[in-house]
Every structure is written in C-alpha cells, then in structure tokens.
Please model this.
Amino acid sequence: MTANALSAKDCYLFEESTPSDIDRHFQSECPPDKKVKVEDLFKFSRKRGDLQISVVAALLALFFLAFFWTQTGWAARDLPDDLGSYVAYQFGLVEIDGRVTRLGRIIKQSWVAPLLCLLVLVPAALWNLRGSWKETAWRKRFKLPTRAYFELTKYVAALEYVAYFIGYTLIVPILGYLVSTLILGTFLTWRLGYRSPRWIMTGFLSSVAVVIAFRTLLQIKTPLNIWLYNQLPDAARAFMLTYF
Model:
C-alpha cells in the first residue's frame, strides 16, 4: 500500500467508509489551496483562453475607433486653421493677440475625451493581442494545452446573472423596488447554493436592508408609474412610492 493511500485511509473513522478503489492512485480535480500573498494579487500571467479574450478586446477597440469619426462630433469640430498655435494657447504655452490664456476650451469639445481614451485603448489592445498570440504559439511549440473550452464556458455562464439583472430591471416598474428586490435577493441566495431556511431568511432580510438603505433613507429614484402600487388606495400608493 502506498503512502498516499495510507494517508487517505487515515482520514476515515471506519473501514467501511473507505472507497473501494482507494488503493489505486487518486488525483483530485480540485487544485490544492495555496496561501494568498499580496504580491500575487498583482502578478500577471497568461492562461488558456487569453488569446480568445484578447481577440475580442482588440475587435472592440477597433470597433470604437471605426465609429469615432461619426459618433463623437469630430466631423462638426470647431478648430482654427492654425491648430498648433491654438493648442499651445489652450495649454498656456503662448498668447494670441494679447488675450488672456484660458485653459479648457478645447477639452470641452465632445470628441476630445473619446480621442484620449482611444489613444490608450487601441495600442494597448493590439499590444496585448500580440503578446497573447506569442504566448499561444509558445504553448503549441512545447505541446502545452491551448484549448479554452473550460474558460469560455465560465464567461458564458456569467451571462446567466446578466439575464437576472435585466429581468430585475424589467419587473421593477411592475412590482416596485421593494418586491422586486426581495425576489431577486432571495432567489440569488438560493441560486448560489445557500438553500437552508437560515440562509434563505438571511437573503430576505439583507434585501430588506438594501431597500431601506437605498430607497427609504437615501431616496434613490425609482419609476413613478408602478402597476402593483397603482392597485392600492391613494394613501397607501403615495406611501409606497415615497419610501419603497
């Protein structure tokens, strides 16, 4: 009997609790827990699925660049012919005709902020795609796994919770913020696997606390025309619209 099998058997109080195939080599699908270090939180490393995500990020950056010229006001920009002197004047480097330097006029134009973002986003996305491509080629060269099916399924699975949020926003005008939040908070508690009565009640009470904090105390705005509240008497309807 191997040392691994012996140590595994020692974990059971009774022999009848031991799996029948304990003598064979056992390998868990769950990776062993590692001690978390602060420096590891900022450590960057490429994994399987990185190439696919990098391609999507680069396509999004190029998509924004393609529509920059027509969707940001660039075509209707109001700039003088002598652009160099104008920019230098805006940033206080020169004075034009003795006028007082005023910073900020060019920054207020609608195309400036998108342009600054694209100047960072597009090169960064393309450079990241280049690095990801080289990493994938290196993995293939040394016969390392490159399939990203598992990683991509996790990204797709996350869309489930996006659907929950969209459904939540759709039922708020029907049932109101209070009822909708109670339904979502309780359901998400159950969906995440906390299905005992204690956890269900915890999710319910947490949802009540969220409603009281954001709607009753902070008076976060919600739709005024709510179907459920419209079925109530006028006094009750006004109370629910004000506090819940």
